[in-house]
Amino acid sequence: MTFSDYLLSLVRTWVPVAVGSALVWAGRRWGIVLPEDLSAQATVLVTALVVALYYAAVRALEMRWQVFGRLLGRAVPPSYAAKAAPPKRKAAPPPKPYGSGVWLDPPGGAS
Asked: Which of 42, 56, 75, 77 is buried deepest, with most CB atoms within 10 A?
């Protein structure tokens, strides 16, 4: 992945976060609020769901019509080139069974 692809991937990640957060903020301004007895964690959960739904919907549209990728910041998705596989090492030959091979005389000659 090149540096420009890296930056593009960041843009295509953070744009849906910004849009989803803006949608939740706008919803609150328009009077769509969660009940008071729900905690702030529920607001965070709703924001995360809106972000995820926005991203999933735009990606589904982009798969059919590439121009919808602009709603993620850029119409062109980053390229993720596969890494080259490491070279295969030649395996060592299996050990010979006991007793095979050449008999060596013990040091100092034959007894």
From this structure: 77
What tens digit of pLDDT does each residue of 48-66 get? 999 999 999 999 999 899 8
Judged by DSSP in three states, 33 sits in coil
Kindly list the distances between the CA atom of residue 4 and the CA atoms of 13, 71, 111, in Å, as whole numbers in the listed order: 14, 19, 76
- The model carries a pTM of 0.62
Give the separation between CA 23 and CA 69, rounded to whole angstroms.
18
Task: Please give the average per-residue pLDDT across 15-43, as a whole number.
Answer: 83
Closest residue by Cα to residue 42 from 8, 11, 17, 50: 50
